Amino acid sequence: MKTIRCLSLVAGILALGAGLPVFAVDNQQVTVTATIPVMMNLTIDTSTVTFAFTQSDYAADGTGSKEVVNATTLKVAANTRWILEVGADAANFTYSGVTVVTKPCGDLSLSPNGTAAYTPITNINRELVRGEPGGTTTAGNSIPVSYKLNTTAAGDPPGNYVLTLTYTLVAQ
Predict the structure, then answer these.
(1) Which of 30-34, 72-76, 96-100 has the lowest mean pLDDT?
(2) Where are the domains of the chain?
């Protein structure tokens, strides 16, 4: 008896469904686009490098040289290959002292990434290092910079010497 009722119910449902319309399927598409610009960010851990010369920094001939190793670390985050440039804002140091002095910016040299090769600064931007896309933890994107200043007892009288450097990050 239960089987007959079940079959009757199924037959009734099929009979009702036979007259129902069939629903069509409609598809729509969405295209997603994104424009990602060149992204570059340069940070520096300290903006001041100080040289404190003492008498022991001078040789018998009156020349002196002092290094500040890994004085600053520049960090780059970029989504493209990049070039880090550096240049002095002026051809000479500014000087505050008793006499008039012209100390060229080239008396200051830089060495990136702990290399022993120092390159004199100019007031024209020059390439310091190149790098690959990535964050500041990407190999090569954290650049320690060492500074070396040359002086002479005859040419650089006592006083304060100041030179501003500008680091520029450029897309390659």
Answers:
(1) 96-100
(2) 63-171
R_g of the chain computed on alpha carbons: 35
The side-by-side arrangement of strands in the sheet containing 82-88 is 126-131, 82-88, 165-171
- Average pLDDT rounded to a whole number, residues 29-40: 96
The pTM of the full predicted model, rounded to 2 decimals, is 0.81
- Amino acid (one-letter) located at 52: A
171 and 81 in contact (C-beta within 8 Å)? yes
> What is the rounded distance in angstroms from the CA atom of residue 76 to the CA atom of residue 135?
7
What does the buried/exposed string (b/e) look like for 22-55 if buried means 16 or more CB atoms within 10 Å of the residue's CB? eeeeeeeeeeeeeeeeeebebeeeeeeeebeeee
Sign of the four-CA dihedral 50, 56, 59, 63: positive
Q: Which residue has the tokens 């520096």?
A: 44
- How far is C-alpha 10 from the geometric centre of its chain's CA atoms? 73
* 32 vs 172: CA distance, rounded Å: 28
Question: 105-123 pLDDT, tens per residue?
Answer: 999 999 998 777 999 999 9
- Average pLDDT for 154-164: 94
Transcribe 31-58 into DSSP letters: ---------EEEEES-S-------GGGB
